């Protein structure tokens, strides 16, 4: 799931919608809708001056998703599982989790 940087549309892989974890999909929707809002405000979503895990637009989007995850009473470890993606190093996950005040045991 991602936002097209050219026109601000939300793009979703249909297989992910069919087979993905419902909670992950819900949190991704929150994350990506923050990017849609950022795009409509004229913000640069893919500012390469920042690493992905430090990019202000990503931190803001993850913060909204994590706030919702906490409202749902997900554990920090479950939130860490949500935050981690296969292309993210352990160090990147650690940096992202610290920025979001999530306690990841890695
Ligand atoms: Zn994002």
Describe the structure.
With 106 residues, the protein is mainly alpha-helical. Helix content is 56%, strand content 4%. It is built from 5 helices and 2 strands. The chain has helices at 14-19, 22-40, 56-71, 76-83, 90-99, and strands spanning 2-3, 10-11. A hairpin with a 6-residue loop joins strand 1 (2-3) and strand 2 (10-11). Helix 2 crosses helix 3. The longest helix is centred in the first third of the chain and has 19 residues, at 22-40. It is globular. The mean pLDDT is 95. It binds zinc ion. Zinc ion binds at residues 31, 35, 58, 61.
Low-confidence stretches: none
The side-by-side strand order for the widest beta sheet comes to 1-2
Q: What class would the helix/strand composition place it in?
A: mainly alpha
Shape: globular
Individual helix count: 5
* Proportion in β-strands: under 5%
Strand elements, count: 2
Q: Using the CA coordinates, give the radius of gyration.
A: 13 Å
Q: What kind of sheet is the major sheet?
A: 2 strands, antiparallel
Would you tell me the overall average pLDDT? Answer: 95
Cofactors and ligands:
zinc ion
* Cα-to-Cα separation, first versus last residue: 25 Å
Instruction: Bin the helical content.
Output: 55-70%
List the helices and strands and how they pair.
Elements (H helix, E strand, L loop, with lengths): L1 E2 L6 E2 L2 H6 L2 H19 L15 H16 L4 H8 L6 H10 L7
Antiparallel strand pairs: 1-2
Helix pairs in contact: 2-3
Bound molecules: zinc ion.
Zinc ion binds next to α2 and α3.
């Amino acid at each position: 799931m991602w936002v097209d940087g050219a026109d601000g549309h939300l793009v979703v892989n249909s297989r992910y919608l069919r087979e993905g974890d419902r909670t992950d999909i819900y949190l991704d929707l929150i994350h990506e809708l923050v990017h849609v809002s950022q795009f409509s405000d004229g913000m640069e979503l893919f500012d390469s001056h920042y690493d992905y895990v430090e990019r202000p637009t990503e931190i803001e989007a993850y913060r909204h998703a994590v706030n919702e995850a906490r409202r749902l009473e997900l554990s920090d470890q479950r939130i860490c599982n949500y935050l981690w993606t296969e292309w993210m190093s352990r160090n990147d996950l650690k940096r992202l989790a610290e920025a979001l005040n999530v306690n990841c045991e890695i």
